[in-house]
Design brief:
The protein is an alpha+beta fold. 33% of the residues lie in helices and 17% in strands. InterPro entries: Cro/C1-type_HTH, DUF2690, Lambda_DNA-bd_dom_sf.
């Protein structure tokens, strides 16, 4: 068509699944209360990397999602599910029909110049009046193309708002059920038995609803919980009130001990977990605490008192 140029619509920046994942990361960052610089200081990822993850410019690695959940003190099951859906959507090849849409949906004709309607000639004084050029008085053709474009933009905006609202509702429901003691649908555990030895309780989802086998208080303000998850066939120690220089080790007879230490002040003032040890008998768990760089070592089992 002469006098008409075609302007291609820009492709969407990210899929709906990626948008849901980005929104979940933003909610976690708000709950953590940390700035981008603080996130960079407390994780292996730089400030610019976090800026790209939270603005949807770059799809984050799975470990970054786990780290943000840990800093926000939130269960990682739902954010990781959103991350996996976004990862699948990014790697999904486009369907054959998606790139072969008609020109009306892929491109919007923009008229270079709209001609003014021609004047209607006055009828001659004859028995039959001259024909009126009705076609030149019809609306310019570009309006037919412009209306669908505006409608599509409005529909897209409504869908985007609905998607963000759905993400907020789903995540709020998950956190509400976690805080109220009503367990949500539990995901499949990422390990079991010996495969859990040395693994993180959060990343493997073994720490969702474990059993507290026993609680010990070696000093005022310090609390150690021996924890066990039958679905993972593994146990670990959870520590509260730790101080710089403390070292905690969990073990079972015949197994490899697992240790967590407190190297700096960032590791204080929050819960710490040792890596897991494999066992099918929680009563065999044993935790040892060395309080301070020069402190003495005391060990505890599910039976009351130090061993």
């Amino acid at each position: 068509m002469e006098g008409v140029t075609r302007m291609s619509l820009p492709p969407p920046e990210r899929t709906a699944e990626e948008s849901a994942c980005v929104e979940a990361l933003r909610v976690l960052r708000l709950r953590s209360g940390l700035s981008l610089k603080e996130l960079a200081d407390r994780t292996p990822y730089s400030k610019s990397s976090w800026e790209r993850y939270l603005n949807g410019k770059t799809h984050p690695p799975r470990a970054a999602v786990v780290a943000l959940c840990r800093l926000a003190r939130q269960p990682p099951a739902h954010p990781l599910a959103l991350w996996e859906r976004a990862e699948t959507a990014r790697n999904r090849p486009p369907r054959g029909g998606e790139r072969k849409a008609g020109p009306a949906s892929a491109q919007v004709p923009v008229p270079a110049q709209v001609p003014a309607p021609a004047p209607v000639p006055e009828p001659a004084p004859a028995p039959v009046p001259a024909p009126v050029p009705v076609r030149e008085q019809s609306p310019p053709p570009e309006r037919r193309h412009r209306r669908p474009s505006v409608r599509h933009v409005r529909v897209g905006a409504v869908l985007a708002v609905a998607l963000l609202g759905a993400v907020w509702l789903v995540m709020a429901g998950a956190w509400r059920s976690e805080s109220s003691g009503v367990p949500a649908a539990e995901p499949e555990f990422a390990c079991h038995g010996q495969r859990c030895t040395g693994q993180d309780v959060i990343a493997t989802r073994c720490g969702m609803h474990p059993e507290t086998v026993s609680t010990h208080r070696p000093e005022p303000g310090i609390r150690i919980d021996l924890r066990y998850e039958a679905g993972c066939g593994a146990g670990w120690a959870r520590v509260w009130g730790q101080r710089v220089g403390d070292v905690f080790t969990v073990s079972v007879a015949g197994g490899e001990p697992q240790t967590v230490d407190v190297p700096d002040t960032y590791a204080t003032g929050r819960r710490l977990h040792t890596p897991m040890v494999a066992t099918d008998r929680p009563e065999t768990l044993r935790v040892c605490a060395r309080l301070g760089p020069d402190g003495h070592r005391e060990c505890y089992t599910p039976a009351p008192g130090p061993s």
